[in-house]
Amino acid sequence: MIVRILGEGQFRVDDNATPGLNHLDTELETAVERGDESAFKAALTGLLAQVRAQGSPLPPDTLEPSDLILPHQDSSMDEVRKLLTDEGLIPG
Amino acid sequence: MGVMKRVQLVFKAKANKALDKMEDPRETLDYSYQRQLELLTKVRRGVADVATSRKRVELQMNQLQQQANKLDDQARKALGLGREDLARDALTRKSSAQSQLNDLQGQYAQLQAEEEKLTVASQRLQAKVDAFRTRKETIKATYTAAEAQTRINEAFSGISEEMGDVGMAIQRAEDKTAQMQARAGAIDELMASGALDDVGGRRDDIQAELDQLSANSDVESELRRLRGEIAANAPKQLEGGVGANGDGPVHHGDRGQSQAQSAPYAPPAPTQNPQQAPPHQAAPPQAAQSAGIPVSDLPSANDQPQDGEGS
Questions:
Q1: Which residues of B touch A51 (CB under 8 A)?
Q2: Pairing assessment for the beta strands A2-5 and A9-12 based on DSSP bridges
Q3: pLDDT in tens, B79-133
């Protein structure tokens, strides 16, 4: 499975890591829905740390699309909300 | 569905939308490649912009540091002159300059991090653009419609995701740079207003007052010197200088005081620091008087270097 961290690049993560990531991802989603800033930060930091620890960076010249995409390390909750909408932050 | 999947779908939807606009798959490849090159240029310009901003902040940090040092010196001088109020004022401004400086140091680190991120992003994009160009040529060479479409879609999605990512990175860097520029502008204004006092710019009021104090003390010492000279010479003009010369200026004061009773135009306080008059000035009046020139017309007394001159 390929995971991209925005601003950092792509990682190949073993499928065994998926349950752990999904758990944190659910927390992240709940935090965004509730507007809970500290839970949001904790979940995002945890997710990024897991991907970095368990994944291996993809060479920069691969053209494979990612299966999952994670927000920037220093994203605000507001940015993540916008990212989730079609008209959001992605240019072009 | 979690956040990670939703973000991925948003990126994918963007890519598909762009793909759908193209009728000829080969057109997609060339069009996308053009956009990639544009984005590369843009991200490189972004790096340069952030670097420019960072340098401006660096310059301001240097200015603020100089200013803090200068204010520190002024506080020291003011204290030396017994002006605690001025010293206090200088130290207050120093602390304001210092806090601006600390603030800028934080922002500087942020800009540096941003510059690094963008540099890495531009290298990654470059690698992907190169890979895309190779893939594009291969696809064109082995063109059969159905196969090509799939391979084009793959390559396009991959690069499109990267482009979205880099585009966001540029946007973030631009936002940060804009914030920094607004901030730098505010600090420039603050320095121009004199609240922190612009280094090398107009003279600030603390310096003006210190200069004034210093100038006043020069004027006072000049006055004392002149009084001493007049006191020394007044009796000589009245009495033909009998026994008045060659005694050294140290005693002029006493003589001046005794003369003051009979000579109403004598200075009122000739005793004030008569030692200020340099000893070597005793000679010219003697020569002048024997030549019949009034002492007051002598240039030598005023031409002598005085204490505190040249400050």
A1: none
A2: antiparallel
A3: 888 888 888 888 988 998 998 899 889 889 988 988 998 999 999 999 999 999 9
Q: Which of B3, B128, B154 sits opposite A25 (nearest CB)?
A: B3
Pick the residue from chain B with its C-alpha nearest to A28: B3
Q: Which of B57, B305, B50, B89 is nearest to B209 (CA)?
A: B89
Size of interface A-B (CB pairs under 8 A): 107
Residue-level pLDDT at A17: 85
- CB–CB of B158 and A64 under 8 A? yes
SS3 for B168?
helix
Q: Which two tokens stand for residue B15?
A: 């890519």
Flag whether the ipTM exceeds 0.90.
no
CB-based burial label for A46 (10 Å; 0-12, 13-18, 19+): middle
The distance of A59 to chain B (nearest Cα, Å) reads 9
Note the pLDDT tens digit of each residue in B230-258: 888 766 555 554 444 444 444 444 444 44
Interface check for A90 against chain B (CB to CB < 8 A): the answer is yes
pTM: 0.62
Residue identified by tokens 């992003």 is B121
- Give residues 35 to 74 of A whose Cβ lies within 8 Å of B: 47, 59-72
A10 beta partners: A4
